[in-house]
Amino acid sequence: MIRGEALCKRFGDVTALNPTDISIGTGKITAIMGGSGSGKTTLLRLLAGLEKPTSGHVWYGDEDLCTMPVKRLYELRESMGMLFQYSALLNSLNVYNNVAFPLHEHTELAEEVIATMVAMKLEQVGLRGFEKLMPSELSGGMAKRVAFARAMAMDPKIVFFDEPTSGLDPISAGVISTLIQETSRKNRMTSVVVTHDVAAGLAIADHVILLWQGSIIAEGPPDAIRESDDARVQQFLQGRPDGPIPFSRSTTSYIDDLTHKPGTIRLES
Amino acid sequence: MSDLFIKQSAPAVFFGKLGRQALRGVEQIGDATMLCFQALALIVARPWQGKHFILQLSALGVGSLIIIVITGAFTGMVLALQGYYTLAKFGSESLLGAGVGMSIIRELGPVLGAFMIIGRAGSSITAEIGIMRVTEQTDALEMMAVNPMQRILLPRIVATTLAVPLLVSIFDVIGIGSGYIVGVELLGVNPGAYIAELIAKVTMHDLYGGWVKAVVFGFMIGAICTYMGYRSEPTTEGVARATTQAVVIASVGVLIVDYILTSFFL
User: Fold this and answer.
1) Is residue A70, in this structure, part of any structural domain at all?
2) Any chain A CB within 8 A of the CB of B132?
3) What is the band of B220 on the pLDDT scale with cuts at 50, 70, 90?
4) pTM of the entire structure?
5) Under an 8 Å CB criterion, which residues of A touch B?
6) Residue A130 covered by a domain
7) Domain boundaries, chain B
8) Does the beta-carbon distance from A105 to B144 stay under 8 Å?
């Protein structure tokens, strides 16, 4: 069980995530959804330990990710995988070496065994035979599929997916969604999926968390989310421009901004 | 809610900006020192980064060889030319070898060599690490339980610390050799006098001084350029700005530290 306790993250004056409690069920797929800037990627990065929270804790069982020694954190990460929004393939390595990277780093397996495992992972994402290509020679969709294969290379227990289907054609998006679902079920893998793809999120998740302006506004099984009577939830699910979630994110007066003169400072009274 | 607007005086704006920049500078120096020591502390940690160190030494050292040879050759040639006509006024052309040798070994080799390596290798270190940040490759390494400080920063800092003195030594040899060609072959200085004065006047103290400078400059280049890349704002503009700043800070830093070290070695 991964548990966020009063997790809060601020970047300077901007609050990306208000104090939030969150639980990620073991062996389940949890989809974190919300509009752009709602804090979902920040929450994912906090859960993965890529960001330190301004306050709060991230518990992996009874260990606090935020205070554990670096050595222990890296031990824990050997059983984790992450698919980044823009793939994050290592530019200096070809497809084979990208997928084999975690295996080379953390196992003593013979190269033939690693080659077999890489071929299996690439077959899974439909890219066997592309081992020698460099990341710069791949399309966005192909890069994401290679990144998926790399995230799965060590058969991790926990995988974080940051926008796994964004920028993909419908077929590739469908394949990735199916792969997330099938791999999670088969391996009893804990998956945390950040997405604003409502259909994909609701289709594959066991548990859905909906964020708005850095706070959780709804959570529960997909059916409960679909049937929620919260107007904000319905506006997000249906993609309506009008509703309680405003399109404009500006917080200052339009007139004041237009009349504010350069070289002066504003004193609120 | 109504707002009041007051105009800030020009000195207030100026000193406000100056103060903020000074504080930011001090903060950055502290952060860079911490990061550098954190990376260096990992030198004894497993897994060993020997393979990555050799790769970096090859990329930074061998890759900079041609530019070092060209710079060394033309520096020696110009020094011989300028030195010959100056010394000829006093009838001391025989001291040309000593003049060229001391200038290159003590000052021009370490400083010009460092400048060339900053331009050739330092900028590419900052840009490469910055791009790795933009494209989340450093985060990907973290998530694959590979410490980016140990894998990315440490081999580059160690490689530049070792590569710069080696390259500066090559610069020195090429510079003195090309000075010999211009002085002896083109301007007619006695070859025996060139070599004899060089050996007589250039001491081991000069050589050690040059190498110490080269080691310090190499470490500075590695530390500054990796820091600027690692802490660059993860945007295209941020990486471009960090690369420019790395080159400027490292170059100015080399000149300042050169003066300090020279004052110790004289």
Assistant:
1) yes
2) yes
3) very high
4) 0.84
5) 48-50, 70, 74-75, 77-78, 80-82, 84-86, 88-91, 101-102, 105-106, 160, 256, 260-261, 263-269
6) no
7) 50-265
8) yes
